[in-house]
Amino acid sequence: MLNLVNYLYIISAGLFVLSLKWLNSPVSARRGVFAGEIGMLVAVTGAFIQAYPVYNLEWIVSAIVIGTAVGIPIAYIMPMTAVPQRTALSHACGALAAALVGTAELYQRQPKAAEELSGFVMVALMLETLLGFLTFTGSLMAMGKLQEVLPQRPITYKNQNLVNFFLFAIAVVLAVRLILVPTDTYLFPFFALLSLLFGVLLIIPIGGADMPTVIAILNSYAGLSACAMGFVLGNKLLVVAGALDGSSGLILSIIMCKAMNRSFTNVLFGAFGQIQTSTAKQEQRNVRSASPEEAASILESAGSVIIVPGYGLAVAQAQHKIRELYDNLMRRGVNVKFAIHPVAGRMPGHMNVLLAEADIPYDRLVEMDEINGEFPQCDVALVIGANDVTNPKARTDKGSPIYGMPILDVDKAHTVMVIKRSMNPGFAGIDNDLYYMDKTLMLFGDAKGFVTEIVKELPARAAA
Amino acid sequence: MLNLVNYLYIISAGLFVLSLKWLNSPVSARRGVFAGEIGMLVAVTGAFIQAYPVYNLEWIVSAIVIGTAVGIPIAYIMPMTAVPQRTALSHACGALAAALVGTAELYQRQPKAAEELSGFVMVALMLETLLGFLTFTGSLMAMGKLQEVLPQRPITYKNQNLVNFFLFAIAVVLAVRLILVPTDTYLFPFFALLSLLFGVLLIIPIGGADMPTVIAILNSYAGLSACAMGFVLGNKLLVVAGALDGSSGLILSIIMCKAMNRSFTNVLFGAFGQIQTSTAKQEQRNVRSASPEEAASILESAGSVIIVPGYGLAVAQAQHKIRELYDNLMRRGVNVKFAIHPVAGRMPGHMNVLLAEADIPYDRLVEMDEINGEFPQCDVALVIGANDVTNPKARTDKGSPIYGMPILDVDKAHTVMVIKRSMNPGFAGIDNDLYYMDKTLMLFGDAKGFVTEIVKELPARAAA
Amino acid sequence: MTFDLGTGLFVFMLATFIGLEVIRKVSPLLHTPLMSLTNAISAISVVGAIIITGNKDATMATKILGFIAITAVVTNIVSGFLITDRMVKMFKKRETKK
Amino acid sequence: MTFDLGTGLFVFMLATFIGLEVIRKVSPLLHTPLMSLTNAISAISVVGAIIITGNKDATMATKILGFIAITAVVTNIVSGFLITDRMVKMFKKRETKK
Ligand SMILES: NC(=O)c1ccc[n+]([C@@H]2O[C@H](COP(=O)([O-])OP(=O)(O)OC[C@H]3O[C@@H](n4cnc5c(N)ncnc54)[C@H](OP(=O)(O)O)[C@@H]3O)[C@@H](O)[C@H]2O)c1
Ligand SMILES: NC(=O)c1ccc[n+]([C@@H]2O[C@H](COP(=O)([O-])OP(=O)(O)OC[C@H]3O[C@@H](n4cnc5c(N)ncnc54)[C@H](OP(=O)(O)O)[C@@H]3O)[C@@H](O)[C@H]2O)c1
After folding, report:
1. Pairing between β-strand A440-444 and β-strand A415-420 as defined by DSSP bridges
2. Which domains, ranges and CATH numbers included, belong to chain B?
3. How far is the CA of B311 from the centre of ligand 2 (A)?
4. Is any atom of ligand 1 closer than 6 Å to the C-beta of A428?
5. Side by side, which strands form the sheet with B380-384?
6. Per-residue pLDDT for B341 more than 80?
């Protein structure tokens, strides 16, 4: 029986690896998801066989039923624009589960504490619960910020890092005491509370727009928590799946940090985005604005158009309207491409998912390094709700918070049009010189509304 | 103590992985080799600690001293052209060791056979010895064929596969009996003998030029044998290193088979190369031949030259002379490149190593897919000891044994010159239409000798 | 069904290597699906949750904690895989059309 | 220092995955060094050979077999690594010169 379980776990671990492997290209990606699903099914089957004869089946089954009943609508109702929030919520669920299982293990094993809760098992248990609880509240905070329920702005106060460090030291002391004397369970609630508090404290000084990076790091933590659970339970499958997850989170956060030209520590402790308040004092400079009608006429007479989508596209949910614009222009023989910056939006790959949702062929989505050479030959660059990723300051202004971040060379296009609601800055909180260039036209308005109007103008003209 | 050993083994396994990872580019390759060496050192240290207190130290130490004393000269004296043979010999050594350890384990553990030699341990032991002995003789045979001590030609006889299958069946019966009754040691010598015999029988029907593929497969077997030893000894490091080795051999042999457009089974059971005998009856066709002087004058007036090296280069050890030719032509402003076919020579990467030995910069070695587009613009293609990899029949003649193998498009160059000793065919034993084209000049002679003479002509002309 | 620390570390090291190798090759196009897929996979703690809840000696506290854990994690699994599939399908469709 | 079949298979599977991933990325330029490097690594059976020869209960037969095994495998290790380094060094030199 045990052998069968072991084989099932091996198969499951292999399927998880294949799942991630197949996700490397859109062609095999669905197969990848499928492999992951089967892997999970095999793992659950293995768990039931391992727990055989399963007691409290009514508890388990009803929990599974409820979880499924909640999960399905979340997956189908959730709009694509809310993917970052959903991911954060999901992390919170996973991490909570790990923490609770760890807690239950600790109390459950008390009678046999002497043999079963010593040495590395106890270390793993403490890590599991620490990471689990911390990721739980941290992910909820991140979700709140992304959903704009909580203030986006980083909240800082004096000696913040010192306070955090002090609390952390207390948690470590408690953990060490528990590791040495696992029967001192009265200490555990304090440890758990500190861990929960910690998740909150770690996130509040981080700006809302850094949440995607934070989520990736929390993903890593959730994985490591599952890993630690594997050490507690002596389950290799948990170790493998957790490690896969941990490395995935790590790599994604590194990619994001690189694309923003910032360091890990800067994201975690930099209180980035604070400067947003200081933008009021900018001197008044002239910009040219234009109407939807004018924009439409410029677009239809262009030979090639590069659309640069950004976070505003996600906010306005303008992807389907943009699809109409794309169809319309392509029909007129205009060559339309999309320039995808690696950190446009609020998640890695955010723009790709949104545009794919609107059925825009993925070979039209061109990555930064590839498309940057095309801007000088392009008639119109149409920026829709993007800001920081087009800011030429990143190339020149050493004092700028985004200095060194690779950007899209939008300023090299013959004509630039920018759809946004105001002259307000983007996430980095800085002014964008792009808007003051002679060849730039500002199209003020909500992305969805403005694009709708442009599209309305276009067929009218076609008929004319 | 055991824990320390375990950590050492983990470190060692990690170093082996890094070692292979760093081998992916010439820049980090030396670091890779270094990581492998340290990994092996750590592993040996671990083994000594695990075996502590080590008995029979005099046996072990003297074996290590002898092994080192033999190994160092082999590494330094061995010419690069003999790399395939050395690899084969090395496989033989590694496999023999695995087989002998397995044998020793079997007898050593007899007193405790009931507990220690049951179930999967015995299965692993049988696999270890089978693969070990088979790889030992197989590698020796391969080495003999490569060194041309043994006949290159495949040796076949009636019902060969049937005889092999029958012997294999006996071996399996013996193995099963031993697995069920591990104390029946009197059967083991027969099993070992059959395994040894098997290695010989599997190789004799395979032609000499297929030996590289065979070596890669034997590499795989040697790895699996080490893996099986890991299962016998309960040693995870052996399992990891063996599996790395096994997958490497597998991938290399797949790459080679693909580059030759042949299947695995065709290599192993196809008795390829037999047809060599039938070449005498070819009709007499006209070829144009030229002297070193003529060749030199054509080369020096060329703007671009692509040199196509092949197995003959390795045989003649002409790489250093070719380097001189290369230097000379480059000094005259002729653009010289090398076209590397994936299976030119007798090992994957064979030509790269030889030319690198002669200090030819590796950015001048261009792979097939990249250089094929350049032949039509190239003034002279100079083929040196290559044959099959340039044969246009592979594109057109469905009946040809090399049909479908991707080739270098030498026939598209403006002028083709071929250095070889005679009109004899290459490994595949078929005629090469390239030699009968109007624009082809045959330069008959040993590769090294002929290139030397060309080089001698060149400076004379420069002076004139 | 337990293991020593050494085995655990061995498995951890190997799995991390695989993770780093494999993830690095995922196309940026699919980074969002990747995030939600690994998110679903991290819900593997369902295995631990089921084992501890299904234990004969499970106290009431364990049962309640286990119940919450399973509910949370199954939500995570179901929504995670379904939404990943939904996303990936969007990319898939384009392939045939192209 | 033993393990169950399950652990062994787990480790084997993971290591094979890593091997396949990593080896596939090795440049064809380096296939010959790759072959001789993995060849040297496969000499890891030296660990088994040392352990069995250094055993207290080793019979004369074991000692002789172990002696031959260690000699063979150490030859393999030493020549394997040295020759790989020799080959790889040749490629290395070019890098700086280029
Ligand atoms: N993608 C990631 O993984 C990731 C991770 C961490 C951080 N970030 C950061 O996020 C930023 C992303 O750059 P980005 O250029 O995409 O966005 P951005 O710089 O934040 O700018 C978004 C712009 O969209 C406009 N906007 C908002 N709602 C809109 C609506 N409904 N209609 C039209 N316009 C609207 C805003 O201007 P108005 O208010 O004037 O309309 C704003 O200037 C970068 O600074 C990046 O470092 C991204
Ligand atoms: N590289 C691998 O990994 C690998 C693996 C398995 C099989 N193979 C097979 O090996 C073959 C390799 O093709 P190839 O074009 O390199 O070699 P080839 O087709 O075997 O031809 C080599 C040619 O070199 C000439 N030659 C031999 N000694 C010479 C000397 N001293 N001086 C000048 N010329 C000499 C021979 O002609 P003369 O006798 O007239 O001089 C012969 O025609 C392919 O068929 C391939 O499938 C390669």
Report:
1. parallel
2. 78-269 (no CATH), 285-463 (3.40.50.1220)
3. 4
4. yes
5. B365-367, B335-340, B304-309, B380-384, B415-420, B440-444
6. yes
Give domain status of residue D96, yes or no: no
Cα A118 to the chain's mean position, in Å?
37
Q: Whose CA is nearest to atom 26 of ligand 1?
A: A312
Q: DSSP of B227-288, one letter per residue? A: HHHHHHHT-HHHHHHHHHHHHHHHHHHHHHHHHTT--HHHHHHS-TTGGGGGGGGPPP----
Residue A116 · residue A109 · CB < 8 Å: yes
B231, two tokens: 């299962």
A210, A388, A409, A411: which is the annotated catalytic residue? A388
DSSP letters of A194-222? Answer: HHHHHHHHHHTTS-GGGHHHHHHHHHHHH
Rg (CA), chain B: 26
Mean pLDDT of chain D: 86
- Structure confidence by residue, pLDDT tens digits, B74-93: 888 887 777 888 888 888 99
Q: Which atom of ligand 2 is nearest to the CA of B422?
A: 40
Contact in structure between B31 and D38 (CB atoms under 8 Å): no
| Measured CA distances, B23 to B186, B320, D28, D29, D83 (Å) | 46, 25, 11, 10, 14
User: What's the confidence (pLDDT) of residue B109?
Assistant: 86
Residue A260's pLDDT band, with cuts at 50, 70 and 90, is confident
> Is any atom of ligand 1 closer than 6 Å to the C-beta of A311?
yes
Residues 6+ away with beta carbon under 8 Å from B157: none
Answer yes or no: are the C-beta atoms of A132 and A126 closer than 8 Å.
no
| pLDDT recorded at residue B322 | 93
User: Contacts of residue D14 in chain A, CB cutoff 8 Å?
Assistant: 13, 17, 240
Ligand 1 neighbour A310 (Cβ under 6 A):
yes
The number of folded domains in chain D is 1
- List phi, psi (to 5°) of A244: -60, -45
How confident is the model over B413-433, as pLDDT tens digits? 999 999 999 888 887 778 888
Q: Which own/partner pairs from A320-323 qualify as long-range (CB within 8 Å, at least 24 positions apart)?
A: A320/A358, A321/A448, A321/A451, A321/A452, A321/A455, A322/A355, A322/A358, A322/A360, A322/A384, A322/A451, A323/A355, A323/A358, A323/A359, A323/A360
CA distances from C62 to A104, B373, C53 (A): 5, 69, 7
Output the CA angle C72-A196-A67, nearest 5 degrees: 5
CB contact under 8 A, A236 and D4: no
D82 pLDDT tier (thresholds 50, 70, 90):
very high
Q: Is the CB of C13 less than 8 angstroms away from the CB of B13?
A: yes
Note whether residue D23 is domain-resident. no
Task: Express as a percent the part of chain A with pLDDT over 70.
Answer: 94
CA-nearest residue to C9 within chain B is B10
How many Å apart are CA A405 and CA A390, to the nearest integer? Answer: 10
Residue numbers of the domain that contains C65: 32-90
CB B171 within 8 A of CB B195: yes
Centroid of ligand 2 to alpha carbon of B313 (angstroms): 8
Confirm if B372 and B408 have CB atoms less than 8 A apart: yes
Q: Is A388 a catalytic residue?
A: yes
CB within 8 Å: D1 and B50: yes
Are residues A24 and C46, on separate chains, in Cβ contact within 8 Å? no
Which residue(s) pair with A337 in the sheet? A306
C-alpha dihedral, A316 to A317 to A320 to A322, nearest 10°: 40
Q: What is the pTM of this model?
A: 0.85
Could you read off the pLDDT of B17-50 as tens digits, one per residue?
999 999 988 888 999 999 999 999 999 999 999 9
Report the Cα–Cα distance between both ends of chain C, in Å, rounded.
Answer: 50
Does any domain span residue C18? no
Helices B188-203, B160-180: crossing angle, 10 deg rounding: 150
Query: A453 alpha carbon to ligand 1 midpoint, in Å?
Result: 22
Whether C77 is covered by a domain: the verdict is yes
